[in-house]
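Dear Dr. H.,

I hope your travels went smoothly. While you were away I took the liberty of generating a structure for the chain from your last submission, since the lab meeting agenda had it listed for discussion. I wanted you to have the full record in hand beforehand rather than looking at slides cold. The sequence, exactly as received, is reproduced here:
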Amino acid sequence: MIHDLRLNGWIEHDGERLSYEEVERMLETDPSLLTCCGGEFALSWNDCIARDRYGIRLAPALPGTIRCGGRTVGRIEPDAAPCDLESAILEAVRLRSDEGVVALSGGVDSGLIAGLAGLECVVVGTEEAHDLEWAERAARGMGLRLHVVTPTDEEIAAALARVVRVIPDPTNPVDASIATTLSFVAEWAEEHGYARILAGQGADELFGGYERYLSSENLAADLERDFAGLQLQVVRDQSVAALHSTYFSLPYLDVRVVRAARAIPAGIRVRDGVRKRPLRAIAERHIPAEIAWHEKKAMQYGSGIWRTIRRLARQNGYKKSVQGYLNQISRAEYGIRD
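The corresponding predicted structure, in token form, is as follows:
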């Protein structure tokens, strides 16, 4: 008998979304079937809890595990039929685009998701930020509605103080600036009645999007290491989203996409000075070519948030150390005194 069944998120099996009632029947009939399910979920019943394969939804359990009575009793390993990368991306976006908004920055990662989902989009950036220009260009080229959020210095300072309370590494300047940027996306979504935010996280690690990959001495090893570190990024981003009762839905961390992308040799993912080459080739068939092949700046730089945080640090007496400024904020937020 199933008691206190709670489903946070959604569950699918081989491309078919399961209703709450279908999940309940599955658990009553054969709980082991859950190990083959995909989706983005935290599921609890009786004394058990289960979390999706890559831990997209936060829960007191390791990603991809089923725990009952405090013990791990199963592993979530979705058995979706193998497919090529393009089909995998199309399916991943289809499963997630029945509702929500897309976090669009104007690059290939979010641009492809936006073009396939056909949902309205939101971009965050300070005045004259790089991402505003490219997101507007992308939305215009794909006929999508775009909402622009342009936070002030005061709003950025306030958001920074909020996010350092919840992210795993609050004094890391990169993490703090990314989290601050994402907080404005989540805040806008909450204010406009959206719980799901489709986003492009995971593409850089899967396809080789970071500039440092161009000079990597062991690209395959670097890609593997960075993919393994994605879970901390997921916790960071979802913790920020949770402040606004939203969550980031990540098509590139669909099991089909992960499997297809990791099957591509590293030297093909980054080749001839072009990062994310396989993803761009697919994107060109679905969105404007200028967006598919645009080399955009990292989120914290393209949004202008990093520049503002550096200016705030200087104004607070930290001319050379953003980390020192973050240490000060963290001490204040956690009530720590020197």
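Two observations you may find useful: The longest helix spans residues 173-191. The chain has 16 helices and eleven strands.

With kind regards,
E. W.
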